[in-house]
Amino acid sequence: IEEFMATCIHSEHTYLYAQAILYKLSKNNDCHSLRMLMQTMDKDVRDKSTLTQRIEFLLLNTPENGNEPYTEIITSVLSMTSAQSTRSGDMIKLYNAYSGNNTPPVELIRRQDLLEIIINDVFHPTKNLAPKYRHHYLFVLAYASYKDDSSNEDSKPEVQNIIKSLLSIHTIVHKNYTGTELLNNLDTLQTAMIYPVCSMVILHWIRMNLTEPANYSTSVNTKSIDTHLDILREIGHLHAFQRQTIFSLLIDSFEIETELDALATLEVRKNLLENIIHLMECGYVIPVMSCMEVWAKKIDQSLIRHFVSNVLNLVGPPFSKIFLQKFISILPNLTQRSLKEVASVQLFLDHCINTDYGLDEEASTILKDMKKTLQELGDTNPKSFQLAPISTKKPSMLLKSKSKPKLMLSPKTTRAKPKIIAKTKPKPKKPEKSHKRTNKRKRSKSDSGGKKAKKPKKNRKLIPVDETYLEEEIVTPRTTRYNLRSRK
Questions:
Q1: What is the C-alpha end-to-end distance of the chain, expressed in Å?
Q2: In tens digits, what is the pLDDT along the chain, a chain of 488 residues?
Q3: Which helix (H) or strand (E) holds 238?
Q4: Which site from 126, 198, 279, 283 is most exposed, i.e. has the minimal number of CB atoms within 10 Å?
Q5: How far apart are CA 63 and CA 228, in angstroms?
Q6: Cis bond leading into 318, ω under 30°?
Q7: Taking the model in full, what pTM does it have?
Q8: Residue 384 DSSP code
């Protein structure tokens, strides 16, 4: 996509030609992805020229879309996007235009930059919007995110449901619930996040909390971070197009400088890394691997080891070439101690060396050098580890399964040898009871010479020991759905 965008914005002529072609394709196929690509292209060149937005509106405001041009709507949208702020007068104009019977095309307000401005002005804790204008803002936001011009169905009932969900989120965001209050409102958030626009509002609110250094000042403030991360995992599973936004949020949170001590900061970053790995489970693989290539040279060794170990427990052969190139470039950053602890690396190296993936010379050299290093260490046993079964399908850069396979422990962890206890004499048989009634009395200490009688020892069976037996740790498989109610 980056190469395509660079080609399209090479000059004014290529930009105009690309926008016209993309608009024509999106109009015939009703493809929202192409329209999103048009808006992304417009955002990249907006700093160079202020005419880019007008070109897109000129394409939308053609005679085939209606008998009369929508000049007032276009003027209102352009004024707000240029000022990066909403105006109550312009929002009332949009509300009146789209709440009537003959509504203009929804593409005029279905713009990423406009929706982001509305979300920021309505759902920012420090901004107080007048209650009398709140319904106008929420209606435009809900209508732009749901209405489909190609469908003749009445969308007003569903738009009203989205407005109710946005109002419920509005209370949580402005009070900025944390701790127990946040846990008590998880059901409300989980119900609302099924709508993409509501999940974008939640992401906007979580970004304000996770990227604020003051929220990391003490360990007490960081208790709500785990809840925020659980919400991010749920949104990442529900909405594929928002994974890039989640990934950007996690990167910004990971790189923030906090006032916590070293161990607490490491624990927070480990939790953030777990969420980044979860995006790989959802299919967002290559961007994560590209980011880890850069981070592997500067982050803590324990975080690199944690990432490599979790990825090897998720993926299975056959691997795609692009995945192998990026993953192999991360492995040299592991120390010898880390290589010994992540013993599944040896089986991964053996598989890549013995399989023809068409790797370049640099990657092949790294594999052979690491294999030689592991042989010199001599403490690993690949028989105790398993990769996912080999598939006959073509290599894919997507992950093979969404659940964790069982993880074996290091070969150094063996079962302790039980002590062999000598056999004792068999316990004497009790005399048979006679039917005659006899006078029984307890044996006193005086009868046994003042010493307490000892009970005979029971037979103890010998336990066979297998020195080659390795203890295995059963890890609960990670699922892609996270039950947010479990934190209550």
A1: 42
A2: 777 888 887 887 888 888 888 888 877 666 777 777 877 777 777 666 655 656 666 666 554 444 456 888 888 988 898 888 999 999 999 999 998 888 888 888 988 889 999 999 999 888 888 889 999 999 999 999 886 655 656 677 889 999 999 999 999 998 888 888 888 999 999 999 999 999 999 999 999 989 888 888 765 556 688 899 999 999 999 999 899 999 999 999 999 888 888 888 898 899 999 999 999 999 999 999 999 999 999 999 999 999 999 999 998 888 999 999 999 999 999 888 888 777 788 889 889 999 888 888 999 999 988 888 888 876 544 444 444 443 333 333 333 333 333 333 333 333 344 443 444 445 555 555 555 454 445 454 444 455 455 555 444 444 444 443 333 333 334 444 445 554 44
A3: helix 225-238
A4: 126
A5: 47
A6: yes
A7: 0.72
A8: G
Q: What is the DSSP letter of 11?
A: S
Contact criterion met (CB below 8 Å) for 427 and 459: yes
Owner of token pair 């401005």: 117
H-state helical runs in 282-335: 286-295, 301-314, 321-330
* Side chain identity at residue 112, one-letter code: Q
State the DSSP string of 250-264.
HHHHHT---SS-HHH
Residue 318 CA to its chain's centroid (Å): 24
3-state secondary structure 164-222: HHHHHHHHHHHHCCCHHHHHHCHHHHHHHCCCHHHHHHHHHHHHHHHCCHHHHCCCCHH
User: Does residue 317 contact residue 324 with C-beta atoms inside 8 Å?
Assistant: no
Which residue type sits at 255? E
Residue 139 CB neighbours (<10 A): 20
Classify residue 312 as exposed, middle or buried by CB count within 10 Å of its CB (0-12, 13-18, 19+): buried
DSSP 334-349: S-HHHHHHSTHHHHHH
The H or E element spanning position 158 is helix 156-175
Q: Between 71-83 and 88-98, two packed helices, what is the crossing angle to 10 degrees? A: 140
**DSSP character for 480?**
S
Cβ atoms of 324 and 355 within 8 Å: the answer is: no
Task: Determine the Cα–Cα distance for residues 36 and 5; give it in Å rounded to an integer.
Answer: 13
Question: 239 with 281: CB under 8 angstroms?
Answer: no
Phi/psi at 357 (nearest 5 deg)? Answer: -100, 0
Location of structure tokens 């007490």: 220
SS3 91: helix
